[in-house]
Amino acid sequence: MDIQLMSARAAKAVIRTGLLRVAWLSWGALTLLVLLGGLLLHEYYQAPLLPMMVRLLPLLLIVPALLASRPKGYFWLAFIGLLGAGQGAALLRLPVLWWLAGMEILAGLILAVTALCIARQLRRQGLDSVSRER
């Protein structure tokens, strides 16, 4: 019985590290795409750089919450991922940046789904540790 419990814990640890890797990669991709999109909008449409800074702000402010590994931080990250996907959908109206919009939607959705999976695992792990203490 102990061997099965240990192998289940090892499998959960491997899954969690894979999910964390995907979350950080999609966060980085979304951050770079927002930066690139802001610069391209500035170049092609002479848009000011302030909206790009406003879009980058939540992505940068969430980092301390992610380093703390709390479920609430990952729920917020999922919300930010959905906002990024929504912003990508808004960029679809611009014919020059359709490819950037598609990548931004994809990165935002991957980030949202991955962050929700991590938050679910962290919450279950927290509930398991509370039940073991009783």
List the helices and strands and how they pair.
Elements: H1 2-45, H2 50-61, H3 63-67, H4 71-91, H5 98-133
Helix pairs in contact: 1-2, 1-5, 4-5
The percentage helix is: over 70%
Radius of gyration: 18 Å
The biggest beta sheet, please?
A: none
- Total of domains: 1
Low-confidence region ranges? none
Explain this structure.
Pfam families: DUF2069. This is DUF2069 domain-containing protein. InterPro entries: DUF2069_membrane. It comes from Kushneria phosphatilytica. The protein has about 130 residues and is mostly helical. It has one domain. The protein is built from 5 helices and no strands. Helix 1 (about 1-45) packs antiparallel against helix 5 (about 100-134). The longest helix has about 45 residues, at about 1-45. It is elongated, with a radius of gyration of 18 Å. The mean pLDDT is about 85.
Features:
mainly alpha; 134 residues; 5 helices
Structure at a glance:
The protein has 5 helices and no strands. It is mostly helical.
